[in-house]
Amino acid sequence: MGMFFAGSLACALAPSFALLLAGRIIQACGAGVLMTLLQTVLFRVYPPERRGQAMSMFGMVIAFAPALGPTISGLLVEWLSWRWMFALLVAIAGGVIAAACFTVHNVGEPTHPHIDVLSVVLSTFGFGGVLFGFSTAGGNGWGSMDVLVSLAIGVIALTLFIWRQMRLEQPMLDFRIFRMVAIVCIICLVASFFIRDRGLHPGQKR
Fold first, then answer.
1. What is the pTM of this model?
2. What is the Cα–Cα distance from 86 to 40, expressed in whole angstroms?
3. Fewer CB in a 10 Å sphere around the end CB: N or C, the chain?
4. Residue-level pLDDT at 62
């Protein structure tokens, strides 16, 4: 939440597009960490018989936010300024941080895990190369040298990243979970609903 607050504040006060982009990156990093930790905390706080209820409430908030956010943002841009979008987020995040200081406690014992620098570098080049390759392929074509080089770097880096994670005692990403057939099936099922083919998803009929 602190990263999200700092990123939102930087966006609200940004005098140039470069600083606005930097603030958005910080904001996105904070939101990404927050989303992951929130689900972990829910599973640690709630007993097994109430986890379904907690996750359903969490999912309802996630589904409701994209519908409410653009509406409020549109009103702020129309009547005030785009900076007020981030100023509102600063106020909300600041209030949450202030309330958390008095009401939220650690749900587990603090740990100090070792950060493997090589894994961070490999994951950055791996995921970044693949994403950049797919992003530029739409404009430059799949035969473009930029696309081929970025995809090659991404695939090689990801392969080395996965190999290293399998050898570490405390990996950044534990790929051993994919040995469970049920997990793989659930991931494939959920991913199929994000596939868009001619505006249709697997649950629709032609």
1. 0.56
2. 27
3. C
4. 76
